[in-house]
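Structure tokens please, single chain.
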Amino acid sequence: MRDEPRTCQNCKQEFTIAATDFAFYDKIKVPPPTFCHECRLQRRLVWRNERALYRRACDLCKKETLSVYDAQSSLAVYCVPCWYSDKWDPLSYGVAYDFDKPFFTQYRALFERVPRMAIAQMRSQNAPYANFIDSSRNVYLAVSVIRESEDIFYAKNVGHSSRIFDSFDVVDSEQCYENISVDKNYNCLFAQYSRNCIDSSFLYDCVNCSNCYMSSNLRNKQYYIRNKPYRKEEYLARMTTMSMGSFSELQALQKEFSKLAQASLNKYAHFTNTIEATGDDLRDAINIQHSFNSYHVENGKYLFRTLEMRDSMDTTNAGFSELFYEFISGGGHKGRMVRFCTYGLEGLDDVQYVDFCGNSSNLFGCIAVRGKKYCIFNKQYSKEEYEQLVFKVIAQMDSMPYKDQQGRTYGYGEFFPIELSPFAYNETVAQEYFPLDETTARAKGHRWKLMVERNYSNVKSASDLSDKIQEVPDTIVKDTIGCVHGGTCNEQCTSAFKIIQQELAFYRQMNLALPRLCPNCRHFNRLRQKNPLKLWHRACMCERAGHDWHTDKCSIAFETTYSPDRQEMVYCEQCYQAEVI
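Here you go.
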């Protein structure tokens, strides 16, 4: 089998299916895709709503709950305790397959009937306002928090960490604020792409540093200010004049830090312990291609936010599993051979086209089925009946494909159609990585959520907040503060927000000024500081003398998330290591 060019039926651009991709498709018994990898990712992300939360009543106990589905949704929605309870039976919604209708038409009808979990939570405590969390406690307005994390506020993608505020991609860290892509940091503020750092602020690409401030590309350093070394006593004396407790001063420091990051050296990719890898934000990865934000992974391609995965492709937000394909959300812990899944609980084996299923095997087109075998459309069969019927359903999916409003066809081997997603485009993660305006989104066949009028009363203007944290009164926790964006941005702005007690205590302890943006807008600010999920072919920009491997300009080529029009200095591995170590 050789590499083969194809034309994406969504964007109409040519893409290549590699020979190794064909081998994987054969292994998991699915046909090759008709969407390119970027369109496949966008299609999956349309099924994941992380930040648009609404109050509504549980359709079982009738108590008010927080949900990713608004009160006007036609879907059946249960609060988390009710959904996990034995008060209802998913198999009671089972139906026989109708060979006179397309598979996805029937799936959507089942989808609208089977109760859904209001908000995605597993094994967690004291986290009523958190989404996509597992085995964590005391989590507030944070997303994708896992592995026994604790006291996490306004953050995303956090693992095995505690006391993390307003951060993005944090692992094994404690007491951090505004950290982006960090590992094993302690007591660090405004740190990016740094690891094993302690008691430091405004760090960019620093490793094994302590007591460092406004510096970049440092290794194994202590008592540095603006990349200049100081004696301990002088460092401590100078740091008493550096204040982040004043909002006006903090704004100036953030602007300085942005310029520092722009002027710093950048390795072509943020890799740690990788072999044969392309992408960005990879750690302990072997044979991983075109993947991002993944750790302890082996033999994979087109992965995004995965942990302990092997032999998988087109997988997003998953962990501790193998042979996954076209999977988004839920983790799928201890899963194997999971294909086409919009939310997977743990313990799935040999399942296809499933949602909110777990601890089950041999499922096809099922929703919320747990602890069962041999089910199609939530109806149970014998092993022989199941195998025969699956064979017939797959054949019918190809002979009678689903056709969406844009003319795209969906037979067996395609992920769920975009238009069947229960979310509007701007409610989903797709808007973060493939942003669209309302006109463009609607033209492409996406739904669009108009801003909900929230009718806040007695909103305090951000301009009326005290500049210094020391001057902020205890009563601030009772105020509703207007977001500076005022709902005019395209970032799921809530237009107003509150400061909670734990947050105020942290700001006072760390001497940090109050924020002026709502949590969603703050998240989008952090998102803009990360590179896109896209690769460009470039050559090293190093022209420095003294490197044995080049006499003039380095010619080593690589794939990088830094586009050719970016101004940052992007180096190959050899040139970068020669300069920062």
